[in-house]
Design brief:
There is one protein chain. The protein is an alpha/beta fold. The chain contains eight helices and eight strands, in the order E-H-E-H-E-H-E-H-E-E-H-E-H-E-H-H. It has an eight-stranded parallel sheet. The chain has one domain (6-231): TIM Barrel (Alpha-Beta Barrel).
């Protein structure tokens, strides 16, 4: 039985000079998963981090699931490196793979959980023939490439449709949303069907007083919003 809701801070918005500490504090504040954005300045217009940083987090002592979101093209070559580095989930964009089914099989055969990422204008039809190979569906609620963007409202309808597909399948597939998630909208996003919430700027960009527990407030507010929505 899957845990109902995961909060997944995106380290794209963290202070990379003290990344291990930042991740430690976010997890201690109640986060469930580390969201790890990989950009190649090719599929998306930005360049971020690779397997060495993932491995460094594991060597630092992070034991929580690491959710690797590949915004790179092509994807197959790098997947074994992220598996070796300690990834728990590996998700990719179907437009970046010549053979989506094969890439999903590669991730699973390497021992990781697999998922597809759909951009705002990417149709859900990509899911039709691969649901049995999915552990995660990630809907982008911004166009990928940069942090700090605003949530695209039409994602709510897409979430509802994706939730219907998951429920009809009878499979345990997480439904994740990434982009512009914050304390003010997380309840509405959950109501539309999401169970996994990526938040970068809303968590790591929060005010940071000289207090190692400064993420408790924002993550606590997210938890409270989710609980309130569940009670309604």
């Amino acid at each position: 039985m899957m845990q109902t809701n995961f909060i997944a801070p995106s380290i794209l918005a963290a202070d990379f000079a003290r990344l291990g500490e930042e991740v430690d504090h976010a997890l201690a504040a109640g986060a469930d998963m580390v969201h790890f954005d990989v950009m190649d300045n090719h599929y998306v217009p930005n360049l971020t981090i690779g397997p060495l940083v993932c491995d460094a987090l594991r060597q630092h002592g992070v034991t929580a699931p690491i959710d690797v979101h590949l915004m790179i093209e092509p994807v197959d070559r790098i997947i074994p490196d992220f598996v070796a580095a300690g990834a728990s989930y590996i998700t990719f964009h179907p437009e970046a793979s010549q053979h989506v089914d094969r890439t999903l099989q590669l991730i699973r055969n390497e021992g990781c959980k697999a998922g597809l990422v759909l951009n705002p204008a990417t149709p859900l039809g990509y899911l039709d023939h691969v649901m049995d190979k999915l552990d995660m569906i990630l809907l982008m609620s911004v166009n990928p490439g940069f942090g700090g963007q605003s949530f695209i409202p039409s994602t709510l309808n897409k979430l509802r449709a994706a939730r219907e597909l998951i429920d009809a399948s009878g499979l345990e597939i997480r439904l994740e949303v990434d982009g512009g998630v914050n304390v003010d909208n997380i309840s509405e996003i959950h109501s539309a069907g999401a169970d996994t919430f990526v938040a970068g700027s809303a968590i790591f960009g929060a005010a940071k007083p000289d207090d190692p527990h400064h993420y408790d407030t924002v993550i606590g507010k997210m938890r409270a919003a989710l609980a309130t929505e569940s009670d309604d």
